[in-house]
Amino acid sequence: MIKNILSLSIALLSLTVCAQDALTSKLYETYEQFKETSLDKRRIKHQDIQPLIQQFSGNPKFEVRKVGESIEGRDLHLISIGSGSENIFLWSQMHGDEPTATQAIFDILHFLDAPDFKEEKDVILSKLKLHFLPMVNPDGAEVFQRRNALGIDINRDALRLQSPEGQTLKHIRDSLDASFGFNLHDQSKYYNAELTNKPATISYLDTAYNYEKDINEIRANAMKVIVYMNNIIQNYAPGQVGRYSDDFEPRAFGDNIAKWGTSLILIESGGYTNDPEKQEIRKLNYVSILSALYTIAKGTYKDIPVENYEKIPHNDRKLFDLKIENVTYELLGKDYILDLGIFRHEVDLKGNDEFYYKGTIGDQGDLSTFYGYETFDASGYKIVPPKLVTADNIGKPLEFLKNGVAYVKTNLPENAAHLETPLQLVHENFKPKPFGLQPGVNPTFFLEKDGKLTHAVINGFLLDLSKPIEGQNFENGLIYR
Ligand SMILES: [Zn+2]
Fold this sequence. Notes:
By secondary structure, the protein is of the alpha/beta class. 29% of the residues lie in helices and 28% in strands.
């Protein structure tokens, strides 16, 4: 009998979950209808979201209030919608270079404004009142940096409250006393789901409220909603969800807001293959947050076993952009076998609107516990140091590469630090350092097999020399002055 009741309740639970899965797949499929297309690059600034905020402030469905200002005087706005008695508070980009959820918030606002999905939205907006505070750190966003204009991390200012941005966040939190809070961030693209080569595209955390990491009902509710969101994201990014570290940080907002009585859900947007502007990840935020709001409004999350939270893999940080395995490297007349872990870091251009890549060797040696977004098995291949030549122009880059030339001494374009051609340009007075592989150096060299050059690595990008350059994964070389 007990067994029958149990299986019946499991069947009912899976029925409700199925019904909601239908909603979420519709959310995913119809996303483009609601996407705010003006925000399609990560380097968004305060001025980019002002016309959108204006648009919602003229819309009777929304309440828009100025709730504060940044240190440099940029307005912070709270956008609210719904008539429910339960407040939900969502804030994004307290770290200025973490914009993915800010973009998703505007997609969600368009969704809430549109006539579609009426039944589901009636449920959400009659039960809940939603409050969005997008881009908490506009001064940081202006220069695409984590910290605010004071040079502090707003997420370590929840107790001292020196930053006006932090004061605003605290004030809104106190005035709403929300049941659920969504603390929306980006994390490094080098995080993976533990013991797998899958990036942690989305990571969740039911933020702890004390060092002991106790689980009270408030925290358990966050865990249940996270289990729900994870099940959904698994459909679109299988294996690409991680659990963020739950170490208690007494100075952080999430931890304190959890302590002050809100079920606190941290969402971190990580990396996704071939998605440098994180637009697919933004879409996953949209689906994830809207489906969470739906299960909160319906109360269905309460039936989810809290233990399932533990089944989500931990975050780890074991990814490189490019991993070259088992390559032969000759040093002082002897051959050694190495793995190379290569990062391609972003360097902002003036104005912080665009960037170029600068490669570095992150680690070398036995990297068998690490993974790459791109992996090349170089068993039987040997590293060949690059040559430097002087030339009037770089007309046929593949010819240089096939001859083992990576550095060209030539007339340099003014003011540029990078070029789209797969070569490294140098000034006429440039003195090359002796070639050597060490962590921190720019990875530029060739690979040889059976005495023939087969591949070039230029600024951390791997090129197959038997193929045309077009269509290969290459972004930019560097210019050394
Ligand atoms: Zn952050």
